Amino acid sequence: MAENTIPGGPIPIQPQGQNPLAKHFRQPKIYLRLPSQGRYWPEGSIDMPENGELPVYSMTAKDELVLKTPDALINGTSTVNLIQSCIPHIKDGFAIPSLDLDALLVAIRIASYGEQLTITATIPNTDMEKEYTVNLVELLDTMQTREFEDTFHKNGFTFKLRPTNYQQFTQAALKAFEEQRLVKTIDDSKMPEEEKLSKFNASFKKLTEYNVDLVVQQVISVQFQNEEPVTNVAHIKEFFAGTDGAIFDGVKDHLEKMKDEFSIKPLKVITDEEERKAGAPDEFEVPIAFDQSNFFARR
What we know:
three-stranded antiparallel β-sheet; alpha+beta; single chain; globular; 10 helices; 18% strand; two-stranded antiparallel sheet
């Protein structure tokens, strides 16, 4: 066997082939049942095991570094890369239905750092800071029992619905961010008030269009009583533009309700006597946020 001389002495050069360290590669830490049970995933975007349980691996050092790339965080690329790395059965992370996203991230957090998440929060009406522990396994269990109501009825119409996917969610968030930044730039500028008002109105119109488009993307079909269902996206958008506003609001409110149903609920905290004496309320809520400096970080 050939040798390679380096400072400290020669080391053998091993032949190419099977990596003898392969047996030490990551192994699945937990198995996850999706809240969607695999529904609403486009064909080819996920390789669902027969038992419906996805193996979840811990994060690699590369995964942790990717999460620290600001541009990748903004456009969603880092989240997609993270999920596809830790859950290889997922082939297209941008196709993830929104109701599965939080469950996937919680599962990766458990596989990488354990079942407990520590959150530091300031107690309301005081200067006191305190650490609180969240049991992520219990949190994940509550997510897996929820159900997306994909049929909605209003004024004789039946709407077949689906959740947004991660790509749609990311694009909508980026567009809203860009418009909000533009509004701030206009507000801080020295342009005439009339011109400002014109630009504000144009920006508001764009945001309204984004919101309508986001709802339309979640509508599979619209059917009135026993008529044929309409699935053409352009026709559905035209229908919402020309029908009673209460119908659109009903669909939008139902989708918002489903979004809230599948969101991570805040941790409810009951204060002790010492904290209440310092001015704290009897109880308060602590948000559980996917902050890269906390949720996906070693302590």
